Amino acid sequence: MTTREELGLNELRACLKTALLGQEIHRFEEVGSTNEVAKRLASQGGKEGCVVVAERQRLGRGRLGRRWYSPEGGLWFSVILRPEIRVSDTSKLTLMAAVAIANAIRGALGTMVEVKWPNDILIRGRKVCGILAEAVLKGGDLDFVVLGVGINANIDMAELPGGVGESAIALREACGREVDRSELLCRCLERLETYYRMLKEGKFSLILKEWRGLASFLGEEVEVSSLDERLRGKAIDVDEDGALVLELTDGTRCRVFSGDVQV
Ligand code: BT5
């Protein structure tokens, strides 16, 4: 598939209004994974806010070693962050990014979006964006985080494998026109910068409030699968630690820290 619009550095520089994120942008035609490239740059001293973006990823990844299919036409990027937070608070960055990207998509395209715990953005129940925050430690403390964002902007759905394609959607399909990825990336970085600042100022509760407002699965019966268990119950809330609060069929409540939700 050929996309008409280009993800050009000049376009990006001309439209980006940020003070921190994207002051340095590395653009590639193809990489294994933008998260991997950003990690390498960060471990060599890469600055906070540095962005890596690629037209295609050969080995795009999701959580737990899963694949993230990244054909041409998508918006695949990673940002280096150096927050002074506890390692256990990394999940807050994922929720923060989901609110920021959801806002950017809605603002740029007027499309209604939802979030699904812990790291999905959906349109009409189908996944349009996945977020992967990878923390790298130094002496037990957080050294840096690479925040990876994959948005199915103008991808051809036929390039995703059958099972994945059925539960995915591209922005182009959702809004009936080709998306300007340079503009979308600028809006994403601007929103990320705003919400990242809020997080650093200790205003996570405000971000969480917005997240809840975007989470239509709350109140629904869900099944949560993690590495070692499968739980069924009603999704009650996502709490201040970023944990999913589930009311099980016997009425007891439990908190889940990682897993996948099926509504
Ligand atoms: C995620 O993982 O959703 C995180 C995806 C992060 C991707 C970005 S792209 C830039 C940066 N560089 C990287 O290498 N990664 C980040 P998870 O929740 O584990 O979801 C993975 C699952 O989503 C897969 O098992 C598939 O079922 C599905 N999937 C794969 N590719 C997809 C796509 N393009 N659109 C929608 N769903 C997809």
**CATH homologous superfamily heading of the largest domain:** Bira Bifunctional Protein, Domain 2
**Biggest sheet architecture:** 7 strands, mixed
Mean model confidence by pLDDT? 94
Question: What is the total domain count?
Answer: 2
Give a nutshell description of this structure.
By secondary structure, this protein is α+β, with helices and mostly antiparallel strands. It is 30% helix and 30% strand. The strands form two sheets. It has a seven-stranded mixed sheet, sandwiched between helices. Strands 11-10-9-8-12 form a five-stranded antiparallel sheet, with no helix packed on it.
Account of the 3D structure:
With about 260 residues, this protein is α+β, with helices and mostly antiparallel strands. The chain has 2 domains: about 210 residues, 2-Layer Sandwich (BirA Bifunctional Protein, domain 2), CATH 3.30.930; about 40 residues, SH3 type barrels. It has 7 helices and 12 strands. Strands 1-2-3-7-6-5-4 form a 7-stranded mixed sheet, sandwiched between helices. Strands 11-10-9-8-12 form a 5-stranded antiparallel sheet, with no helix packed on it. Helix 3 crosses helix 6. The chain binds biotinyl-5-AMP (BT5). The site of biotinyl-5-AMP (BT5) has 28 residues, from helix 2, strand 3, strand 6 and strand 7. The site of biotinyl-5-AMP has 28 residues, from helix 2, strand 3, strand 6 and strand 7.
